Amino acid sequence: MNSELFWLRYLNFEEKVVKLTEYIAFNDEQKTVYSPYIADLIIQIGVEIEALSKEVFRKYGGQWDSDSYPKFDKDCLSYLEQSLSISQKIVNIANPLIEFSSSKLYPFKGFNYTGARARNWKKAYMALRHNRIESIRLANIENLILILSALYLLNQYERDLCLNLGFQSDYKLKSDTRFGSKIFSLSVFDSMKMSLSFEGVYNWKDEYNEEFRESVYLIIFSDEALVRLKEILTQDAQIIMKNYSEVKREFPDIDESNKNFLTNLYNSGGMNLVNKVFTSERRLKYEYGNLSVIEKIINKKEFTY
Predict the structure, then answer these.
(1) What is the overall mean pLDDT for the chain?
(2) How far is it, in rounded angstroms, from Cα 141 to Cα 48?
(3) CA angle, corner 54, sides to 133 and 41, nearest 5?
(4) Is residue 207 classed exposed, middle or buried when 0-12, 13-18 and 19+ CB atoms within 10 A define those classes?
(5) Using one digit for the tens of pLDDT, what is the confidence trace for 133-174?
(6) Which of 66, 85, 177, 279 has its CA 20 to 30 A from that of 153?
(7) pLDDT, position 258
(8) Are strands 184-186 and 217-221 parallel, antiparallel or unpaired?
(9) 175 near 204, Cβ under 8 Å?
């Protein structure tokens, strides 16, 4: 099934929820407002999640015995948790008409719990599907937004978008974190803030861990740009080492006790010495802004670029 068909289905559900905001105030005081219409929406969205979870399961390498069908939660979502850490991914409420005190949602956090510990939207969906009359209070606004956010997130993995954002100098102007939604947005990890070694390898810091885990999409250099960047860094490294050799002959007593190259230079001769080594002739200074970047879905738990 074409992934865009799932997305069109999602947009249809989203439009119905947006329409509801014209009649009901979506805020903390109204979270428990329920209705048969919301019950219908929750059940329909839940059925869509069951179907889509199996498609995403298969897309990312999931397999099962052909004589049986996988269960959407026990098999499919559990597999996606192992391979994609979906329980840690954030969906943000980005529509000003939905005024919940917390705009940060974790749609699949606790998805594998059962009974009273079950995730609210999953508990509501199951209860309404099997006993709508007695469970009608679960057909409320809060559960509707939660289950819709789960469908939105699954659709991102199914669509697996790869968007060209143009050049490094202005890519932020083109980076839309809603990805076509009128209600939600996603956390995007921007690797452009990371420094690069002379080998063209991103320098990872522990402070990035949480943001990376919560992000569905990743902004990185295109493969072509990364190859060019490594060439530039190699050329710059050669220029720097040539300059350093010349400075060493002029200042043979340069302190080399510190592991930090720049610190040694500064301690030995201040900024004048630093500038002699890190000359303005370096290519990176002029070409960095013209390197292209892309926005790509994260499909691994670890940063491997």
Answers:
(1) 84
(2) 18
(3) 30
(4) exposed
(5) 999 999 999 999 999 999 999 999 999 988 888 877 777 767
(6) 66
(7) 59
(8) unpaired
(9) no
